[in-house]
């Protein structure tokens, strides 16, 4: 917001509208005037919601126009230190020997950590019990206390506990290792080939926004992401700046919707109301 304000010479006001897995804020943006003055910054749940919920108050692809994929970030598979596993292969072997005896936490039913673990579970061929929480904070508390065994953790939130030895990190979920903990292997190279889950931040505008305005916004975003202070801030959160074109982000969004639709249907996850 600060960098866009500098580029366009006018204030950019951040209006946080949390709730309902991002649906509340997204609905406001989708119904806003398509003049380039209302922007939506959202996360990967935007691609999960079309399948997770039986009905949305907007059309995910038709009512919003992509501007840019801003950044991507991995999750990290963490376990309680009492778990006798130090690698992904050991976790898979341990779980296979104890079907449905291990539990994994998530920040909520249908959340990124939930579906990321469902994808891991099915690709690894293991059975585990899902324990959903109302937010990542509550999930983290029970993981640290040993009430649950595994959690697909946010890097920024999990790092202090990992460094303090209260959690053990096994692998990162992206296809490439993270600069934050380069010693950690990826899940794909550590025993589950082809596995890849990344969180992301993206910018969209109401459908019908003039292409010239969309392009101007993209240029402003791309410039902002190249700024040293912005890239350093993102890197500190294990995020990698992207700044894709509107067309590239549209392709990425469609791919994400298809990917998570498959996981949701296979796992039988539904959220009827938001």
Report on this structure:
The two termini are 28 Å apart. Strands 1, 2, 3, 4, 5, 6, 7 and 8 form an 8-stranded mixed beta sheet that branches. This protein is α+β, with helices and mostly antiparallel strands.
Briefly summarize what is shown.
This protein has 274 residues and is an alpha+beta fold.
Key features of this structure:
single chain, 274 residues, alpha+beta, 10 helices
Q: What is the overall silhouette?
A: globular
Largest β-sheet summary: 8 strands, mixed
Radius of gyration over alpha carbons? 19 Å
- Individual helix count: 10
- Taking the alpha carbons of the first and last residues, their distance comes to 28 Å
Which secondary-structure class do the elements indicate? alpha+beta
Return the average pLDDT rounded to an integer: 94
Give the helix proportion (percent range). 40-55%
Number of strands: 8
Percentage of residues in DSSP E strands: 15-25%
Helix/strand order, N-terminal first: HHEHEHEHEHEHEEHHEH
Low-confidence stretches: none
């Amino acid at each position: 917001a600060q960098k866009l304000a500098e580029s366009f010479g006018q204030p950019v006001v951040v209006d946080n509208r949390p709730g309902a897995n991002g649906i509340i804020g997204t609905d406001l943006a989708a119904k806003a005037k398509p003049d380039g003055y209302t922007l939506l910054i959202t996360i990967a749940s935007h691609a999960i919601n079309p399948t997770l919920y039986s009905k949305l108050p907007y059309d995910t692809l038709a009512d919003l126009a992509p501007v840019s994929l801003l950044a991507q970030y991995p999750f990290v598979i963490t376990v309680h230190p009492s778990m006798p596993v130090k690698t992904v292969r050991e976790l898979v072997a341990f779980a296979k020997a104890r079907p449905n005896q291990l539990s994994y936490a998530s920040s909520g039913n249908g959340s990124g950590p939930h579906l990321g673990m469902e994808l891991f579970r099915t690709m690894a061929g293991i059975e585990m019990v899902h324990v959903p929480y109302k937010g990542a904070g509550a999930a983290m508390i029970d993981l640290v206390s040993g009430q649950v065994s595994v959690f697909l953790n946010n890097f920024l939130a999990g790092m202090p506990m990992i460094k303090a030895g209260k959690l053990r990190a096994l692998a990162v979920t992206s296809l490439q290792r993270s600069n934050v903990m380069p010693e950690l292997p990826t899940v794909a190279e550590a025993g589950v080939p082809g596995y890849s889950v990344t969180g992301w931040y993206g910018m969209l505008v109401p459908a019908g926004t003039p292409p010239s305005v969309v392009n101007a916004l993209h240029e402003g975003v791309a410039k902002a992401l190249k700024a040293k202070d912005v890239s350093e801030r993102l890197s500190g959160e294990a995020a990698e700046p992207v700044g894709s074109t509107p067309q590239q982000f549209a392709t990425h969004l469609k791919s994400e919707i298809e990917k998570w639709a498959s996981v949701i249907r296979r796992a039988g996850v539904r959220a009827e109301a938001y």
